[in-house]
Write a structure and sequence with these properties.
This protein is α+β, with helices and mostly antiparallel strands and 228 residues long. The chain is 31% helix and 31% strand. Strands 1, 2, 3, 4, 5, 6, 7, 8 and 9 form a nine-stranded antiparallel beta sheet that branches.
């Protein structure tokens, strides 16, 4: 069975930039890099953006038709060109996160990244779990939040465990490794998202998710993505 997989790359920018500005040198370098990917591989789509509350942090989503195609591109001559463009804008002195996620129930997260006509911003959630956790329990708890958030306006929500299983857990020390569950959902705009977070039901659901499971570290990021 060939499964679409989404590569998620999170990194710090070398210099402050507005990735919504098509004329920004940083934006152009990212777009040139992703253009190489889309032109010289079978990847169907890619998106880039920055965290609204931490604009020096950028995040890329690249949808691959299979892990094999991703690996083929990484071993191709085009990969060097792609990497050269990215290296020009990434602060290599800061941590870089690379995850490969087979999203469900839809393998294609594009609607939540802005392809859906009602999506202007996207919430990207990372839930890091340590050794000995029950994956099924956390998956079930995360999925229970979706209907609550959808009733508050979330669109096209999807989630899944990253394929990587020995990830360093942020702020937990170098020796502790674990896995990460990624959940994304689209919102009309930042104001709509902000109003939803005032909902008592959403606050209670998130509290229960974080407090009743072995979640060692969590991030809730709001991102405005731009399609290629």
């Amino acid at each position: 069975l060939i499964t679409m997989i989404t590569e998620i790359v999170t990194f710090q920018l070398k210099a402050s930039a507005d990735l919504g500005d098509i004329n920004s040198p940083t934006t152009q370098a990212i777009r040139n890099s992703l253009s190489v990917v889309l032109t010289d591989s079978k990847a169907p789509s890619a998106y880039y953006g920055q965290l609204l509350k931490k604009p020096d942090t950028a995040i890329l989503f690249v949808n691959w038709p299979s892990n094999d195609e991703h690996e083929r591109f990484k071993s191709s001559p085009s990969y060097e060109t792609h990497f050269k463009h990215m290296a020009a804008v990434i602060d290599m002195q800061k941590p870089i996160s690379v995850l490969n996620v087979p999203f469900t129930p839809s393998e294609d997260p594009s609607p939540a990244l802005g392809l859906h006509d009602k999506v202007g911003v996207t919430e990207v959630i990372f839930l890091y779990c340590g050794a000995g956790f029950a994956r099924s329990e956390i998956t079930s708890a995360a999925e229970k939040i979706r209907p609550v958030m959808e009733r508050s306006g979330a669109q096209a929500m999807v989630g899944a465990w990253a394929a990587e299983t020995q990830l360093a857990i942020p702020e937990a020390g170098e020796s502790e490794k674990g896995e990460v569950y990624v959940n994304i959902g689209g919102w009309a705009d930042a104001d709509a998202y902000g109003r939803s977070q005032e909902s008592e039901k959403i606050q209670q659901s998130i509290h229960e998710l974080l407090e009743t499971n072995d979640i060692r570290y969590s991030e809730f990021n709001l991102v405005r993505f731009h399609p290629m």
